[in-house]
UniProtKB/TrEMBL annotation:
The chain crosses the membrane at residues 20-37, 57-75, 91-110, 116-141. It is found in: Cell membrane. This is Major facilitator superfamily (MFS) profile domain-containing protein. PANTHER family: PERMEASE-RELATED, TRANSPORTER, PUTATIVE (AFU_ORTHOLOGUE AFUA_6G08340)-RELATED. It holds the Pfam family MFS_1. Keywords: Membrane, Transmembrane, Transmembrane helix, Transport. InterPro entries: MFS, MFS_dom, MFS_trans_sf. PROSITE patterns: MFS. Residues 24-170 form the Major facilitator superfamily (MFS) profile domain. It comes from the Bacteria. It is a multi-pass membrane protein.
Length: 170
């Protein structure tokens, strides 16, 4: 048995990595899947009737699509500072709750101004999620296993397009 400080026996390490890959990564990847689907939903909603329902011009649609990233960029660094202060688990939970509340408010959008404001607030709410998720996984996984675990996490992004796009086109 290896008794050097900070090093687990190989069987314990394999078991821990397996548990992380089976229990933790799918949950965080599902959050990333929903995050990316939510972020790109406007791209599917516009051509399938939202622009007509809200009487949006092409410029208004483009602005509403892009204003998300203004809020996201403005709050990315402060969100990551808060992540370090409060811990990844708590801060990711806060992000998920506020982002869920803002996403639900989209059901009542009736005009361009409401859409633009909510898209900006959605960017603010989501700021820090991706780096927070990476930090959360990095804290749980030793460096030599990190690339495998993070690749499982990253698979959620292309799956969003494969699963999310066809369901919205129907």
């Amino acid at each position: 048995m290896d008794t050097t400080a900070g090093t687990a026996p190989p069987s314990v390490e394999r078991s821990a990595i397996r548990k992380i890959a089976v229990r933790l990564v799918p949950f965080v990847a599902l959050m990333f899947f929903i995050n990316y689907l939510d972020r790109t939903a406007i791209g599917f909603a516009g051509p399938t009737g939202m622009t007509d329902d809200l009487a949006l011009s092409a410029a208004q649609f483009g602005f509403a699509s892009g204003v998300f990233f203004i809020g996201y960029i403005l709050l990315e660094v402060p969100s990551n500072l808060a992540l370090h202060r409060f811990g990844a688990r708590r801060w990711l939970a806060r992000i998920m709750v506020t982002w869920g509340v803002v996403a639900a408010l989209f059901a009542w959008v009736q005009n361009f101004e409401q859409l633009a404001i909510l898209r900006f607030v959605l960017g603010v709410a989501e700021a820090g999620f991706f780096p927070g998720a990476i930090l959360f996984l990095s804290l749980w996984v030793p460096a030599r296993h990190r690339s495998k675990i993070l690749s499982l996490f990253y698979i959620a992004q292309p799956l969003t397009s494969v699963i999310g796009a066809p369901s919205r086109a129907c």
